[in-house]
């Protein structure tokens, strides 16, 4: 029973993190593609999807181990731990990818004529030059939509995804005991 819970947690938590990362990565891709960007805009989506694949690999390994191992408490606890060792880092890594993409979207330079990210409204000054009370101006670092997927951004995404890779390695070590 513990092994089945471990397999379910590995895939469910990793897939949840992957979905969050893919959702915000999709918004980055939409903004970059609408401003004439290349297909590299889809890199955050692919990287978030790999986190879900790590969870799938772990759950398959746990299921295979559970099928050939005697069902004692020690083996079940080890396989539950393997599922948690992949599921929690997968959730955190996917959410971190989404949070980083959200940060990129919040700091796009949306000057006149530039695309507005989905879910973000332009801040309009009133006639007197004073902001209306219903809008809050966010500090902008002035990212160009074309620079949303640049080398530094990809490096940050790689290091964020490494968290899930560490979870995969730990879970494979835990499930690596031979039948």
Task: Give structural notes.
The protein has a single domain (2-111, 138-175), classed as lithium bound rotor ring of v- atpase (Four Helix Bundle (Hemerythrin (Met), subunit A), Up-down Bundle), CATH 1.20.120.610. Residues 131-140 have low confidence and may be disordered. The longest helix is centred in the middle third of the chain and has 34 residues, at 73-106. With 179 residues, it is mostly helical. Helix content is 66%, strand content 0%. Helix 3 (73-106) packs antiparallel against helix 4 (151-175). It has 4 helices and no strands. GO terms for molecular function: proton transmembrane transporter activity. This is V-type proton ATPase 16 kDa proteolipid subunit. Belongs to the V-ATPase proteolipid subunit family.
